[in-house]
Every structure is written in C-alpha cells, then in structure tokens.
Write a structure and sequence with these properties.
Chain lengths: ~200, ~300
C-alpha cells in the first residue's frame, strides 16, 4: 500500500476515488517484465552492497512483503545466500491518521536484529513518499540499521517528501488522478502478475 | 464513527469484532522491543477517577502512553473536589484546557454519560457504579478469543459471584451475548438482581451442578466496598459453596479456562493455587487490557477508524 487513492480503489476496478469510472490506460509491466525486474533489482541490491551478507529485506504490507520474498528467493538462487525477510506494518506511524481511516494490515515481524545491517525497504509503488517516511519511523523503533535503502517496482512520481528510491523496476510518469494497479499472485485474486495504469474514463 | 464508549451495547457485532481484531494488532505492538507507536501524537487523554483503582487506571494510562498521547491524571484525593467542586465544574474546567478524551470512573451509574453530555471530548466509561465496565468486557472477550480462537459461538461461560453489584458482569453478559456465547449466572439468591428480565443469561444457585459443563469460569470479586459481604451469612460459607477451591477446580473439564477481573480476594472467591494454576488466564487478562484500551483510544481518537 503506497498511496491512499490506489489502495482505496483497488477492490473495485471500475470505481474511481472521485466516484466516476476508471479504465485501463496502459499495460505497464507484464508478468515476464516483472520477473525480469525482480531479478535485476535482486542483482543490484547484491552489487551495491558487495554481497548479501549484511542485508535484511523489509517488505511493507501487503504487496511489499510478497515482493521482498521474491527478491530473497532470487538472491538465494544466484548468490546461494539466505537473506532475512521482515514484514513491516506502518499504519501506526502514518501522518494521515487524523485524516482518514488507517487500519493495520498485518503484524510487524522482523526475524533478525536490524542494528548494523543494511535494511532495504521494499514496496510496490512509490508515490507521495509518505508510506516510506512512516516506514523509516517504524524501522527506528526496531533498531539502528547501518543504512536504509528503498526498492520499488514502480516509481510514479508526485513526491511530497524528499525521498527517492535506490532500486526501481520502472519509472512511470503519471497524472495525479491516475491510478497504478499492481496484481501479484501472492496477494491479489489473480492468476498472473501485472501492472496497469488506470485513469478516468 | 463512534465518539464515546459508554456501554458495550454501543458496539454492534461488526464493530465489536473489528475492535477485537485491532486489539490483537496492538497486542503485537506491545510485544515489540519498543512497545510504543506515534499514532496519537499530540492527543491529550485525562484519567478522571472518582473511585479507587490500580489496574484499570494504570492500564488506560499505559495504553495512552504507548500511543504517544499526553496523559493527565486526576486524583480526587488531591483535587478541588475536596473543596466542594461538583462533577460538572470539574469536568468543564478540565475540558477548557483543551483535551481529546476523558476516561471516567465514578461510583454513580450513568456518570460518564452525563459527562459526555457536557463536553465535546470523547468519553470512555472505565466503570460507573454497578452499571457497566465496557473495556473490561472487551479485554475478557479478547482473552477468550486468544485462548479459543475467533469463534466464540456456543461457548459455555459461567459467571460466579456478586452479580447484583457487578458492572463487570453486566458488561460481560452483553458482550458474550453479542458473540453468541451461552452465559450462566451462578450466585446465592442474595447476590442476584431481584429482576432478571433482560439479562441474556440463564441463572442457577448451584455451582457444582454446572461446573463440569463449563468452557470458561469467570469469578467475580466479593466487593467489600459495595457491601456484598453484608448479603452473605459468612465469607467462609460463600467460599465453601461458590468459591473455586482446589477440589472444585479438579472437577472442571481439563481445558476449562479460569478468569477473574481482579483484584482477587485469595481464599474467598478463588483459591490461591487455582489463581496461579495452568488454567488461569488472570495474568493474560491484564496484558490484554492494555491492548484493548489502545484499540479503544485509537478507534475514538484517530479520525475515520470505524467503531460503530
């Protein structure tokens, strides 16, 4: 969950947040594209950190957790190393709790002490940056990593905070009213992965 | 969206389930190394206790602090109440300082509802006379749910003791009925309300009769301050017939859960060995209480979170 509008619109593919109708504008990434993006990001993480030994992947609920597990599986395949994967719920760290309903999405579970490690935050879509800011606070409460990095499948722009991603599957210029919808077999009711751009019809 | 929690009846079944699920989320938070989140930063919670309390007051204050609220504590003993200030003036004075929630305990039934009619802040009933104690019922339901799974439908729960004076029993009976459990009230006639219409529970005077069938046995405190002892010939007779002694505990089903809202009169309503035995969930109840109160504060004070 990266931005309120896409999360709110996700369950019903035709209802727009404003009440109008939404339609597909573009197929952004296919299942094969996503597989390649995962593999590339996994390689980049290992390359940038000179190995995977000190890395811990922290997926943000819901899809970030699944993506983090895919990245860990890819690293295991080519590097032979088990990278610990944690799941982070940032609900109680958000800055919009007083503006809209914010409910937790799952329990925060981090299997290792993150202090001294390189923590890689993993999420599906980077939008305003507010979820990532909340994640940085959540990480603070867990320990003091040596460094924190950010991996996302899609960077759709429109940042409201000085945050940028270290690893990006696809840079996708969007309009603010558009909606980036990510489908993953682990988290969504779907038989194949895919990312589409939706907009007002 | 709900503003106050005055009675367990303020919650419909869906809201109750959501609140218990949220409580489990907060239970995870309380198990972390830093059991504190910034969710309600800047909110001010006042605990206004006109009656003695250790666990409820500390539990609410801990819950508020773990959500990063600022907590102001009002003690009758050191306040202007001793100069004759009435409840309404006290409450309006506190409200004028700019606050978001008041946790009220009072010996008069309905006092929290009155307070809610005077000021804009959210009011949480932390026990009003013999009327209700909704967060106690919520933490008891959470404790049962964690021990037995989310489906409490058909669970047989016996509540033993001073039913007539007990706000805990009143809220718990309502809560158990909402989740579909079957409640039996067990007490000597002098400790039962004279009119039992509207109580969604069956009634018996004989604990030994129902003992082997119960899935959970909930013991109420003999409340000396509400003179429940005056309704009994002798405390030792109460223990002999309605107390959970070691011998009686042995006749419970092996998986029957034993609960008590505290504070306990060891050797009166429950034997010390039973209170500390493996079937006892009394410590879990206290732990769950903080998580439930975090969920209540979060639901009332964070905008939009649906409670009812």
């Amino acid at each position: 969950m990266v931005d309120a509008s896409s999360a709110a619109a996700q369950p019903d593919a035709t209802a727009a947040p404003g009440g109008g109708r939404f339609a597909i504008r573009a197929h952004v990434l296919s299942a094969d594209d996503l597989r390649r993006a995962h593999t590339r990001i996994a390689h980049e993480i290992v390359e940038r950190n000179h190995g995977a030994g000190e890395v811990v992947l922290l997926g943000l609920y819901t899809r970030g957790v699944a993506i983090a597990q895919r990245l860990a599986a890819a690293i295991k395949e080519f590097e032979g190393e088990d990278v610990p994967v944690g799941a982070l719920d940032v609900a109680f760290y958000r800055d919009d709790i007083s503006l809209r309903p914010v409910q937790p999405l799952g329990p925060t579970e981090v299997p290792v002490d993150i202090t001294g490690r390189t923590a890689v935050i993993v999420d599906d879509v980077l939008f305003t940056g507010r979820t990532v800011r909340a994640a940085l606070d959540a990480i603070n409460a867990l320990g003091r990593p040596r460094a924190v990095q950010l991996a996302v499948l899609v960077d759709r722009g429109h940042r409201e905070l000085p945050i940028r991603a270290d690893y990006v599957g696809k840079n996708l210029p969007t309009k603010i009213a558009e909606d980036v919808r990510v489908r993953l077999v682990e988290t969504d009711d779907t038989t194949d992965d895919g990312i589409e751009l939706w907009g007002p019809a | 969206m709900m503003k106050n929690l005055l009675s367990i009846d303020d919650l419909d079944r869906t809201a109750l389930d959501e609140l218990l699920t949220l409580s489990e989320d907060f239970l995870h938070v309380t198990e972390r190394e830093i059991p504190k989140v910034p969710a309600l930063q800047g909110k001010v919670v006042v605990s206004l206790f006109y009656e003695d309390s250790t666990r409820t007051r500390i539990s609410f204050e801990t819950a508020a602090k773990r959500l990063s609220c600022d907590v102001m504590s009002f003690s009758v003993g050191s306040s202007s109440v001793n100069k004759g200030e009435g409840l309404r003036d006290t409450v309006q004075t506190i409200a004028a300082m700019g606050i978001d929630a008041v946790v009220v305990r009072h010996s008069a039934a309905g006092a929290p509802a009155r307070v809610a009619s005077w000021i804009d802040a959210s009011i949480i009933n932390a026990g009003d006379g013999s009327h209700e104690h909704p967060t106690q019922a919520l933490l008891d339901l959470l404790t049962l749910r964690r021990a037995r799974g989310p489906e409490l439908d058909g669970l047989r729960v016996g509540i033993v003791g001073d039913i007539v004076n007990s706000r805990v029993a009143r809220s718990l009976v309502l809560g158990l009925d909402k989740v579909g459990a079957n409640t039996t009230l067990i007490a000597p006639p002098t400790l039962l309300p004279t009119v039992l219409d509207g109580w969604r529970a069956s009634v018996t005077h004989d604990l030994d009769d129902v003992l082997p069938e119960l899935d959970a046995l909930y013991l109420l405190r003999i409340q000396r301050e509400r003179k429940s002892a005056n309704r009994l010939p002798r405390l030792s007779e109460y223990s002999a017939r309605w107390g959970l002694t070691v011998e009686r505990a042995a006749r419970l089903k092996p998986d029957t859960l034993v609960m008590h809202p505290g504070p306990m009169n060891r050797g009166v309503e429950i034997a010390a060995e039973v209170a500390e035995g493996p079937a006892s969930l009394i410590t879990e109840q206290v732990t769950n209480g903080v998580a439930v109160r975090m969920a209540v504060l979060y639901s009332l004070l964070s905008s939009g979170a649906r409670v009812a």
